[in-house]
């Protein structure tokens, strides 16, 4: 995770939030589905390390949510997202206790169960759109406007939605996607 977080964060900054999340979740899904089939301990450890690297990219979802959530709801939504991570960690521990204690599949059963969230996350990421803020900041202004219009579901964008942020304009970088 310590290596995956900065590496995958850089991928998200360069190529976009959605591609980075797709790559991250796909890698996690691949590692999670392959781990129960590992023929040896070294292969299992390598797959678990790969899964840990991919989990390091999970923080990209926080950035995507922050960039797509109205300011007035942002703190609450991010707290819910963080709570989901905590609930997932608690659920993983509970699943481990049940899988090891109640089923004859042993550690392989535990890993098959752990693969379920990885598959669901990957399917969920497929439904996401790119962050309009990232599109705008990377010079894809037409796509950013189309994305915002799509998010508005036919409603007109409020005046001033796409005004340059004073701080960014002062430093000469790309404008913020919205206030």
Automatic annotation (TrEMBL):
One term of GO molecular function: transmembrane transporter activity
Species annotation: Sexangularia sp. CB-2014
Domain of life: Eukaryota
GO cellular component terms listed in the entry, alphabetical order: membrane
Domain Major facilitator superfamily (MFS) profile span(s) in chain numbering: 1-179
Primary location group: membrane
Region described as Disordered: spans on this chain: 152-179
Keywords, comma-separated and alphabetical: Membrane, Transmembrane, Transmembrane helix, Transport
Membrane-spanning ranges: 20-39, 45-65, 77-98, 110-129
InterPro entries: MFS_dom (IPR020846), MFS_sugar_transport-like (IPR005828), MFS_trans_sf (IPR036259), Sugar_transporter_CS (IPR005829)
Protein name as annotated: Major facilitator superfamily (MFS) profile domain-containing protein
Topology within the bilayer: Multi-pass membrane protein
Location of the protein in the cell: Membrane
């Amino acid at each position: 995770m310590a290596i995956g977080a900065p590496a995958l964060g850089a991928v998200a900054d360069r190529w976009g939030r959605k591609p980075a999340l797709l790559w991250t979740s796909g890698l996690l899904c691949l590692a999670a589905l392959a781990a129960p089939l590992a023929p040896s301990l070294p292969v299992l450890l390598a797959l678990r390390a790969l899964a840990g690297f991919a989990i390091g990219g999970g923080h990209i979802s926080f950035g995507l949510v922050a960039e797509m959530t109205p300011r007035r709801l942002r703190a609450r939504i991010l707290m819910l997202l963080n709570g989901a991570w905590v609930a997932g960690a608690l659920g993983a521990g509970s699943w481990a206790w049940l899988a090891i204690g109640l089923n004859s599949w042993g550690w392989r059963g535990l890993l098959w169960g752990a693969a379920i969230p990885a598959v669901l996350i990957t399917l969920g990421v497929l439904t996401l759109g790119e962050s309009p803020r990232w599109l705008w900041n990377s010079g894809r202004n037409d796509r950013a406007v189309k994305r915002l219009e799509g998010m508005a579901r036919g409603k007109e964008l409020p005046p001033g939605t796409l005004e340059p942020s004073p701080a960014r304009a002062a430093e000469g970088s790309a404008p913020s996607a919205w206030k």
